[in-house]
Specification:
- The structure is a single chain.
- By secondary structure, the protein is α/β, with parallel strands linked by helices.
- Helices cover 62% and strands 10% of the residues.
- It is built from ten helices and five strands.
- Helix 5 runs parallel beside helix 6.
- It is rod-shaped, with a radius of gyration of 53 Å.
- The chain starts with a helix and ends with a helix.
């Protein structure tokens, strides 16, 4: 059995302090400073420990550098992803705006040209935006143009009918234009009732109809409700005056004749003076 004194190693305190300081620097990530404290290694058993510690510090430094590089690449990827998501969001908003374009074609006249298929989400957004625009602008006429719609199913037709009813509740009259032959045939086959909605062939015809109705409504508003009664009263005025003259002539004919005095002067009975009044 080997003696215990043969296994013992005498180490200087400076070497132990150097190892402890290197470990302290490595704990805070200062690997270069920790490696620089190693210095010249002594060929003894404690020197082997110092050499192992030096290898560990170098591996930790390399691992830390690789980790920092991976984190930097990950951060760059995250920024790129955020930019791509922002671009996609802007494109989505632009597409949504283009999918529901509401155009002010005239005073109090809005146009909603529809293009492509209309699903439930798009129909809900379309209804919300159109009703809000009607309320903001005080529009009285809405032209829904289906020139860009190739296919209409039962769901799409139901959305259109509900849209026109909602606009009517806000006081706006709707006109449907641009219905293609295939769309018209489909609407008839599925038995969709537009509920008395005016339909015209082109957007131009719809705008002309809106302007005509707009002018007719303005002319009717210019007529005051009391104008007809005033004219009737004015027309009856001459008749009333003639009746008054006829009544006055009849009264004069019914009056008794005035008595005449001896000298031929007519005196009224009420104006005759008695002898007592004049003192005779």
């Amino acid at each position: 059995m080997t003696d215990a004194t043969d296994e013992s190693v005498v180490v200087e305190g400076k070497r132990i302090e150097r190892v402890l300081e290197a470990l302290s620097l490595a704990s805070v990530g200062a690997f270069d400073e920790a490696i620089g404290l190693s210095g010249a290694l002594t060929e003894d058993r404690f020197g082997a420990l110092e050499e192992s510690l030096l290898v560990l510090l170098r591996e930790l430094k390399q691992t830390r550098e690789e980790h920092d590089k991976a984190m930097s690449d990950l951060e760059a990827s995250r920024r790129d992803l955020e930019e791509q998501l922002a671009t996609v969001e802007r494109q989505r908003i632009a597409i949504r705006e283009l999918s529901v374009p509401i155009i002010d074609v005239w005073d109090d006249v809005l146009t909603l040209p529809l293009v492509g298929a209309i699903d439930s989400a798009r129909a809900a957004e379309m209804t919300e935006k159109l009703l809000q625009r009607i309320a903001d602008r005080g529009a009285e006429y809405v032209i829904i143009d289906l020139t860009g719609v190739d296919v209409v199913d039962t769901m799409t037709a139901a959305h259109l009918v509900r849209l026109t009813h909602a606009a009517k509740l806000l006081g706006a009259k709707c006109i449907l234009t641009g219905v293609r032959p295939d769309v018209a045939r489909t609407l008839v086959e599925i038995g969709v009732h537009l509920g008395g909605l005016m339909t015209l062939r082109t957007l131009k015809d719809g705008l002309r109809a809106c302007l005509t109705m707009r002018e007719a409504d303005r002319i009717s508003l210019r007529k005051k409700p009391g104008e007809g009664g005033d004219k009737g009263k004015k027309a009856e005025a001459p008749k009333d005056e003639g009746q008054d003259r006829a009544v006055s002539r009849g009264e004069r004919r019914q009056r008794p004749p005035r008595p005449e005095s001896s000298n031929g002067v007519s005196t009224a009975p009420s104006s005759m003076a008695s002898s007592e009044d004049v003192g005779l």
